[in-house]
Amino acid sequence: MTFFRLYNIPMSSPSLAAAGRPTLDAAKELAARILEAARLEFLAKGIEGASMEGIAAAAGCSKLTLYRRYGSKHELFMTLVKERAPDYAVQFHVDATQPPATVLYQLGLVVAGFFFDPENLRFVRVVVSEMSRVDGLPALIKEQADRFREPVRQCLATLKANGHGTYDDCTLAAIQFINLCVLGHFYLLAGYTSDQVAVDEQEKMVRSAVAMFMAGYFPQNSG
Fold first, then answer.
1. CB 177 within 8 A of CB 104
2. Angle at 49 between CA 43 and CA 52, to 5 degrees
3. Closest CA to 96 of 163, 175, 176, 159
4. First vs last Cα of the chain: how many Å apart?
5. Cα Rg for the chain, rounded, in angstroms?
6. Which residues on neighbouring strands pair with residue 16, listed in sequence order?
7. Which residue from 54, 59, 31 is spatially nearest to 41, judged by alpha carbons?
């Protein structure tokens, strides 16, 4: 009696791939379990304290599977950083034809909301602490920062094209505005929790950031 008949599995079962390989769906499910296990392990212990054994056990796979897929613990961390990157363009969907102060306030709320999201704040701290120890991580973070900034830069460029704003460099202006909205790296480095930067506090910071930005670059609209 064959294995398939013993366990009443059809020979053409879609859950089994040729040569015993997992199906595409099964492979995706495993990858999701691994990345979730890695996320929890890295958040709890950092890269140096995290173990591939612990991640494999939590994901329900072997350590060999992890090394075959990702090569090393550092490569797994890099993959996690890439996979966590959202579609920033969707988050920053703002009608740039509105008055500049309205556009900036809406942009600022998205910036602050993303930065002070409890999960994001914790993960950013882990990333910052590992920047000098993981090859390729600084370049990857720069790439992600550029992606995060791009929708803001585009909105500022649209405002400029519509006759608003005195800045010459939209990228530089976007960097300045984002930093104003979250007080640079103050909260990141000072160890504040997301609870200490609640929504009402974020709104207060954003309103202040918009006022300062408007006064510097939109003198015709800031009064």
1. yes
2. 90
3. 159
4. 86
5. 23
6. 22
7. 54
Place of tokens 């890439």: 82
pTM to 2 decimals?
Answer: 0.77
CA distances to 6, 16, 77 from 3, in Å: 5, 13, 39
Token pair belonging to 12: 């053409």
Task: Encode 112-123 in three state secondary structure.
Answer: HHHHCCHHHHHH
> What pLDDT, on the 0 to 100 scale, is given for residue 222?
54
Specify the amino acid at residue 163.
Answer: G
Q: Which domains does the chain have, with CATH numbers?
A: 18-84 (1.10.357.10), 88-217 (1.10.357.10)
89 touches 41 (CB < 8 A): no
CA–CA gap between residue 208 and residue 219 (Å, rounded): 15
- At residue 222, φ and ψ (nearest 5 deg) are -80, -15
In whole angstroms, what is the distance from residue 127 CA to residue 137 CA?
Answer: 8
Nearest-CA neighbor of 201 among 190, 213, 192, 212?
Answer: 192
pLDDT tens for residues 142-192? 998 898 899 999 999 999 999 999 999 999 999 999 999 998 877 777 767
Angle subtended by helix axes 199-217 and 170-181, to nearest 10: 150
